[in-house]
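Side project, low priority. Logging it here so it doesn't get lost.
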Amino acid sequence: MSIPTLVLEVAMIAWGIVCGASVYEHVAMVPVWAKAPPASLTMWQGEHRVRAERLWIPLHPVVVLLLALALGLHWSDDALRLRLGVVLACYVVVLVVTNALFIPELKRIAIMPTVQLTPDAWRRRARRWERWSLARGAVMLGLAVVLADALRLA
């Protein structure tokens, strides 16, 4: 196995971790905190709160680095360059959107709620965030298919 292929395989594993963690959050965590806000938001607050950023903050740069390295190592292959370039570009867009919209909204809803809303308004905001996040997850899973296809070609 060549080094470029090995790097691509490690990038695919890292991508799988991102997708798996996202699915886990939507199956195990989102239903809990979105069930009955603001009372159900305590998992994000206090000394013993969930600190999902401990996974996400170090993971994203590693994935970007692995994808960029795989892209550079496979630059001479047009088909791989296209697929890896699409995955990397879309991932960067997802990260920008996440930092611009998802994280601030999650902080407003769950981590540092500063607004007094009715329970129905809390639930609507939580459901809206969940729909956005599910759409983002679908994009990420779709990109996993593109990345797997790149690995198949390598």
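Brief comment: The radius of gyration is 18 Å.
Revisit when time allows.
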